[in-house]
Amino acid sequence: MIDTLAPERADRRSDVGPPAGRGRRVSLGLGVLLAGVVVVLLLAAIDVTQGTAHVGAAAVWKAITGQADGTDASVVIASRLPRMVAGLLVGASLGIAGAAMQAVTRNVLAAPDTLAVNAGAYLALGVATVSGVGFGVLAQSGIAFAGGLGAAALVLALSGLGNGTVRLVLAGSALALGLGAVTNALILLFPQQTQGMYAWSQGGIAQNGFAGVAQMLPFLVVGVGGFVLVSRRVDALALGDDAARGLGVPVRGTRVVAIVLAVLLSAAAVTIAGPIGFVGLCAPALVRPLARRFPTMHRSWAAFPVAGLVGAGIVLASDVLLRAFVTGDTATAVPTGIVTSVVGAVFLVVMAIRTRDSGQTGQLEGSRVPGRWTVLVVTLSLAAVLVGVVIASVLLGDAKLLLGDVTNWLTGRANQAISFILDTRVPRVLAALLAGAALALAGTIVQAVTRNPLADPGVLGVSSGAGLGAVVMVTALPVVGSWTMAGGAFLGATLAAAIVFGLSARGGFRQDRLVLVGIGVSSGLTAMISLVIVLTDPFNATKALTWLSGSTYGRTWSDCVPVAVVLVLALVAVIARRRELDLVSLDEDTPRLLGVRLSRARLGFLAVSVVLTATAIAAVGTIGFVGLVAPHAARALVGRKHAAVVPVAVMLGAVLVCAGDVVGRTVIAPAQLGAGILTAAIGTPYFIWLLVRTPRTAR
């Protein structure tokens, strides 16, 4: 499987060799460290001189030394210097936190992002914000710490303390998606209390004075000091659990302490600047090549500070680049975290491409072969449930109707009020049904091709690509038609799929590389979606957020046509090639022995899933977990043969989205929640249960 040993256990021979050689390596290491300090200080100096006001280096120096007065001094002291210091502290905290997480889990992809620490802290602060209770900076840090620690603990428990690379990233990504959906629901339901929270959630180091930074310093000192005390124990963990126990190191206790300290640093960084993405992933990865050249860097007491220095450099460099290429008020509006997220996503993709895939294959569950009567009973039962959900969706809402009202509407005898309600409600129900079915079929294909029961279209970046294309349409055009929206979503999904498939083609779309590249591309595109929303006006931002939550509000008959056409064609194609899909989902060798061109078959099936996902997202917005839950539940009910799985999964997807839609528009009527938020609330616990049941093959 992919090598997950973060510090690579390598060369622990730093104390072996001639004294002269050791002295030369130490001198070179100190030289590299000094060069890094100089680079960071240079970035800090440049960062202080940038901004909307024209304050040059000379004016900055005078303000620092107390020689300036008036506007220049206030700008530098109240804004520029606090921003620069915040960048240093946040970057250093995230760099150290990421290095510690990777060291204790021995996983090169462990970081505050992949462990859902940022998402947990974001949700905790969102709940605190809408509660109406005023919290100081210290209390907010404690709330963020609790949320981040809970999320990290859950992800580590699900992934076996991070031992499985793909497993850890999937667990963290799915949990972050679920937590983010809940937070977005709070933003939509409490717009006044959460005003500006979405922009803050993208991560920005702008400060208004030193007050917030000063109150976070004790947390940073405690975190760094704690790592100094446990550094020797952390080094022992790199030798393996058995070796560490032989040295008298309490393995579990050391891991718990290290993770708590890392989350403390991450929570402090979130409180200062919001969630700044991927710094904790990139900084330790940039230190590892130095460790191969300078063996001392394998020691935690050396690696952690250097990772912190690199993290500070990443944050400041991102801020400098942002303000160098984007000037004026736009630079102020764009959070620094968007830049780091894009850079980190590229970094994750590069790491995924360079990792060595084991060639081992996953196995989908559902090995039992149920009888024909069992399949028939399950299919008919689901059809009955689907009919019941459709009837409930048509009758329930802010205005409740009777079956007689629907009959009168169908025969043209309903009064004006009933006709208006059903003319607007029935297209919504149809859009939810079609989109749910399309997403379920796309997820069935993706899981079969990747042979990964934890995968769905969102993992391959397709959902984020379609979301970016549709959000651009929503924010750029005053009125967006159904075909225009579908075209934008399809273009974005196609572009994302082309990138993912192109980068994963080497080796025949192996599942590990495909999943990791897809997650990296998805993260980058999600950051671009945030950029578009942050830069648009508040009205368009609300429209985009509502659409991203998976809303069927305002859908018309014409919105249903594209997804209906694509769904019918895709069903015909998949059912016709169902035996080929069965073979692709088995292993690497069997399809080739039976004459199936595996790479071409995978690419063809994935292309169908791209089109399905794009049209579904264009119809109802971004809805997560349907492509994960429906195929898995279908295989659990009727086995793994796609002749039975496809219709069952399609009906389950339709039921799930339609039920989410009707619940979202009835439980808090007249206010509404998007169907995507409800499916995330259902899908996240289901995913956790599924991950617990799935064998931990990635070691």
Plain-language structure description:
The protein is mainly alpha-helical and 699 residues long. It has two domains: 19-330 and 337-354, Orthogonal Bundle (ABC transporter involved in vitamin B12 uptake, BtuC), CATH 1.10.3470; 426-693, ABC transporter involved in vitamin B12 uptake, BtuC (Orthogonal Bundle). It has helices spanning 19-49, 57-65, 71-105, 117-130, 137-158, 165-189, 197-201, 211-237, 241-246, 251-273, 279-293, 300-325, 328-333, 336-354, 372-395, 403-410, 416-450, 462-476, 482-504, 511-535, 538-548, 557-576, 578-584, 589-593, 598-620, 626-638, 642-664, 675-693. Helix 8 packs antiparallel against helix 10 (251-273) and helix 17 (416-450) runs antiparallel to helix 25 (598-620).
Question: What's a quick, concise take on this entry?
Answer:
This protein has 699 residues and is an all-alpha fold. It is 74% helix and 0% strand. The chain has helices at residues 19-49, 57-65, 71-105, 117-130, 137-158, 165-189, 197-201, 211-237, 241-246, 251-273, 279-293, 300-325, 328-333, 336-354, 372-395, 403-410, 416-450, 462-476, 482-504, 511-535, 538-548, 557-576, 578-584, 589-593, 598-620, 626-638, 642-664, 675-693.
List keywords for this structure.
ABC transporter involved in vitamin B12 uptake, BtuC; globular; 699 residues; mainly alpha; disordered N terminus; 28 helices
The CATH homologous superfamily name of the largest domain equals ABC transporter involved in vitamin B12 uptake, BtuC
User: What do we call the CATH topology of the largest domain?
Assistant: ABC transporter involved in vitamin B12 uptake, BtuC
**First and last CA, distance:** 7 Å
Helix-strand pattern: HHHHHHHHHHHHHHHHHHHHHHHHHHHH
